[in-house]
Design goal:
By secondary structure, this protein is α+β, with helices and mostly antiparallel strands. The chain is built from six helices and six strands, in the order βααββαβαββαα. Helix 1 (7-19) packs across helix 4 (79-91). The longest helix is centred in the C-terminal third of the chain and has 22 residues, at 126-147. The structure holds zinc ion. Residues 88, 92, 109 line the site of zinc ion.
């Protein structure tokens, strides 16, 4: 398996961490080393994020997370697509202080659902309702910008 460190991915990570540093989740990982690599992933995914195993840290690796982008698609993506994909992966990363012990974790998606279920049943759960509300607010923002 060919794996390369991607300076482009690392630059996007750095820029997004600066741009959204006041967001709670991004703030919680401000001290975490996050690397970016490019490699061949499953055709079903654009990217993923992994925690660096504790053993690697004992061996001198200073990263908490590695964001891997899929070499099948990366070069053909627009700048906005690249940024949104990396932002998605950063949203999986979270630092949690529990009882005075700070730990880095991976967080699951807000919702996991099939579009066919939402098409039939709509926002039948509060989590889906909240998700759809936020998506429509974003859409309203874009429509306001377009009409200006
Ligand atoms: Zn994800």
């Amino acid at each position: 398996m060919k794996v390369e460190v991607s300076r482009e991915v690392e630059k996007i990570i750095k820029d997004l961490r600066e741009k959204y540093k006041t967001e709670e989740k991004i703030e919680s990982i401000k001290n975490a080393g996050i690397s970016g690599v490019i490699l061949k992933l499953s055709p079903r995914i654009f990217a993923n994020v992994r925690r660096v195993p504790e053993l690697w840290k004992v061996l001198g690796c200073n990263y908490e997370y590695v964001i891997a982008v899929n070499e099948r698609y990366w070069k053909s993506l627009s700048e906005v697509q690249k940024e949104s994909i990396i932002y998605h992966e950063l949203n999986h990363c979270v630092g949690i202080d529990r009882d005075g012990e700070f730990k880095y974790k991976l967080k699951d998606h807000d919702i996991e659902e099939f579009s066919s279920v939402i098409k039939k049943y709509g926002d039948f759960l509060p989590s889906i309702k909240d998700f759809m509300k936020k998506a429509s607010l974003k859409k309203d923002d874009e429509n306001k910008k377009e009409t200006k």
